[in-house]
Amino acid sequence: MKNSNTTTKANTLPGNPDLPTPQEELLKLVPEGSKNMKYSVEDFFRNPEKARYLLSPGGDYFSYMGPYKRRQNIFVQKIGTTETTQITHTEDRDIAWYFWANDNRIVYGKDSGGDENFQLFAVNIDGSGMKELTPFDGVKIDVIDDLKDIPGEIIISMNKNNPQLFEPYRLNIETGAFTQLAVNDNPLEPISEWITDHEGKLRLASKIKGGTNNTLLYRDKESEDFREVLTTDFREGIEVLFFDFDNGPVVYVSSNLNRDKAVITKFDMHMGKEVGEIIFEHPEVDVSALAYSRKRKVLTVISYTTDKKHFHFLDEERAALQKKLETNLPGYEIVISNASRDESKYMIRTYSDRSLGAYYFYDKNTDKLEEIVAVSPWLNEADMASMKPVSYPARDGLKINGYLSLPNGKESKNLPVVINPHGGPWHRDVWGYNPEVQLLCQQGYAVLQMNFRGSTGYGRAFWEASFKQWGRKMQDDITDGVDWLIQQGIADPKRIAIYGGSYGGYATLAGLAFTPDLYVCGVDYVGVSNLFSFMKTLPPYWKPYLEMMYTMVGHPEEDAQNMTATSPALHADKITAPLFVIQGANDPRVHINESDQMVMELRARGIDVPYMVKYDEGHGFGNEENRFEVYKIMLGFLGKYLG
Fold this sequence. Notes:
alpha+beta; Rossmann fold; eight-stranded mixed β-sheet; 12 helices; 34% strand
């Protein structure tokens, strides 16, 4: 559905076409003063002119994403020249991601209207040879292995034969011909992951057994059948990172077997257990990111996130490169985004909490570091708010970490505040540039983001503390963050709003329903409102995980009382604050009915509920013009009720 007019009515439109607020009424919320701000909404949410740079495998070309007719497309530039070639011309939807399949061909993924059914395309670096590789309606594609050493092929998974089950295929990126590599036809024991070795052979898999157990499968050769190696409850297990440099049976893993925090170690598939000493662990957080040199066949660096991203080096050469980069680019978080095949040329990306950073090109042979482009040069970092790591105790004593951003030039006392819980909920907020936070701080609002219980990366006990606690202890952690801000004197208790997307949208609705005196207004962006209807409308490829969802969120029959008590739509009579609701009609994760039912319930009681629906969007707005519109209206809504 391409039409973005919220007032269009047709039998084909998802949801109730009578509910969205007419466009002209929504636009009345846009504040007049927004035109006089130093930075506009467009400055924070426009597509960068050049971003997402990658080096070609041979190191002769840059590629990057840039706008064409307001959509992100792919451009290629030969290193040492200024001439660029636009090789894609998509107009309906941004290209979501891409990679170099070989020195002459790029593969990219794109969905339709936010439906998340990503399809694959390939194109030569001069723009010729465009080929739709997976021309299947309603089929979702994932890349298993880009086969760096096999230039003409990649390995993908797709749910072509059964919407619930993904099967692996070897795909020719020139012709589109594909060969199925294995079968995944048992919905009672579905395979959830496929893993290749360094030669691109399919050697490992993980299947769901008994609804809530994960079983690791292994084979020494592709000609053999998979055999079961280890079965664990889904709460613990190993995440296979990659094979050792002898191609097995030992693999490097992130493991929380018999421990709370995941560590980096090795696992022997023949013995079915961890072997050797732990390579790295951290007392506060899980560790799951391990890098290696394909050329030198050595482990190089482990990264982990506490307050910010940190590194533990395993290789002197890699450590020396990081030291060189940090000396030349002080004050920034620095990441090597990719390298040439011979590891002589590197693409470097800098990050901070006050800008989108920049891309640099480093040539090891000449020892030259060159800035390619600043991603958001129109933003002056000195004008942006800093994001400060903070922590506070929950009412039961659990430590909650988060980030507090304060508006520049204002005393940090009695400020209007926007509480911004993250989505997921099995996700976490991290330190870095956030355009939503910067926009709100520019308006004079303080913003608190918290990693409530259930947020990932803090260990198994912290995660499990969230089970069946939607609207209860998870919500208490958010409420306790508000109380902490008030106790610190930072928040004006009469000027606090809550805004979030996805699970953060649920937390917004729960906050307004279960602590109605705490917030003056709320903004719900693609949020869950009714746990019963949410469970019934999950996309088909989530169905294999349904028993796990029942364990984490609640079973609609066994936990009906708890789910009724914690479904905001069933307690709409308790909500008194105005609410702005935002929904993508094609959202496969949170069905539009989740927003429709909340809007109907509140409007029946006379609550002010402006409701924006975009019929060319899904779980969050990707199209630039829709982002501009939603944040302008959000500013007006917050300004009306928060001040």
